[in-house]
Amino acid sequence: MTHMPSTTAAKQQRRLLMFLLHHLIYGTVGGVVFGLLILLFDIAGLWTMIAHSPDRTLSLALLFFGLFVTFGSLGMAVGVMQLGEERD
């Protein structure tokens, strides 16, 4: 026998998941912008190395996947931390 959540609990779960999804999207957009700026300004010669690599697609995929995970997690963490109430 499975326990079915009440409609109020289901709505609250959906609202919280949407909240996290929005912050995940904000973080991944930030990661894309950061990655593009790194490549645009050729910081540490990264774009030069990637452009001359035979595994260009793999290098870009690994770079942006790492940025998605890092900045997406950061975006969700900031969202969760903003939920708290300040106590004196």
What share of the residues lie within helices? over 70%
Supply Rg.
19 Å
Task: Give the helix tally.
Answer: 3
In percent terms, what proportion of residues is strand?
A: under 5%
Order of SSEs, N→C?
Answer: HHH
SS content category: mainly alpha
Largest sheet: none
CA-based shape: elongated
Which blocks of ≥5 consecutive residues have pLDDT under 50? none
- Distance linking N and C termini: 46 Å
The total strand number stands at 0
Mean pLDDT: 92
Description:
The chain has 88 residues and is mainly α. Helices cover 75% and strands 0% of the residues. It has three helices and no strands. Helix 1 crosses helix 3. The protein is elongated and about 55 Å long.
Topology diagram in text:
Elements (H helix, E strand, L loop, with lengths): L6 H34 L5 H6 L4 H26 L7
Helix pairs in contact: 1-3
Task: Give a summary of the structure in a few sentences.
With 88 residues, the chain is mostly helical. The protein has 3 helices and no strands.
Provide keyphrases for this structure.
single chain; 88 residues; mainly alpha; 75% helix
